[in-house]
Amino acid sequence: MSRLLVVESSARQQGSISRQLTAEFLQRWQASHPADQIIQRDLASTVLPHLDTDLLGGWMKPAAEQTPAEQAALARSNELTEELLAADVLVLAAPMYNFGIPSTLKAWLDHVLRAGVTFKYTETGPQGLLSGKRAIVLTARGGVYAGGPLDHQEPYLRQALAFIGIHDVQFIHAEGLNMGDEFQQRGLATARQAIAEVA
């Protein structure tokens, strides 16, 4: 039995392609892996604050010196980090906003990329501590960007995940969604075929 952590980052609850892809992925995954446990984290319904002085204080100050706000920030970061540590498979659903990831997903990453917890510094540089995990990233994009210079989404997420030790990362892109019906249908069909193969 495996544990999946599913992180949704679309700002839209209705009409979101990335949420539709996630639902299809989970339906297929559960059919193939009925004993697996699925934990879902929706960054639109439970919005995380951006990295701030309270979170930094919670990480860096001794417990006795933390303010109530810093203690709350640390508790929130601990909860998110523990979800990630407990997961065998990480599923990120990420629409492309302005050539990159949603700021809500960046905020989640800022809470879980933690020195001494998910990575550590060594004499030869940083070392990820989450080896053995797998990640699947579902994206929804208005244009066609994969492999091009304007795709700041996939390279960034690959680097961020590798930094914490997750190197087995598979991207499933639904592209061309705002380029007319033909492009949209082709992009969705390509993504759904990949989902069927992965799940």
Q: What are its keywords?
A:
7 strands; 21% strand; alpha/beta; 6 helices; single chain; 199 residues; two-stranded antiparallel sheet; five-stranded parallel β-sheet; Rossmann fold
List the helices and strands and how they pair.
Layout: E1 3-8, H1 17-32, E2 37-42, H2 53-60, H3 68-86, E3 89-95, H4 103-112, E4 119-122, E5 125-128, E6 134-140, H5 154-163, E7 168-174, H6 181-198
Parallel strand pairs: 1-2, 1-3, 3-6, 6-7
Antiparallel strand pairs: 4-5
Q: In which order are the strands of the major sheet placed?
A: 2-1-3-6-7
Task: Output mean pLDDT.
Answer: 96
Structural class: alpha/beta
List low-confidence stretches: none
| Beta strand count | 7
Largest sheet: 5 strands, parallel
Q: Enumerate how many helices there are, as a single number.
A: 6
Shape: globular
* Number of structural domains: 1
- Termini distance? 15 Å
Q: Regarding quaternary structure, how should these chains be classified?
A: single chain
- Percentage of residues in DSSP E strands: 15-25%
CATH topology: Rossmann fold
Radius of gyration: 18 Å
Which CATH first-tier class would you pick?
A: Alpha Beta
Q: Which CATH architecture?
A: 3-Layer(aba) Sandwich
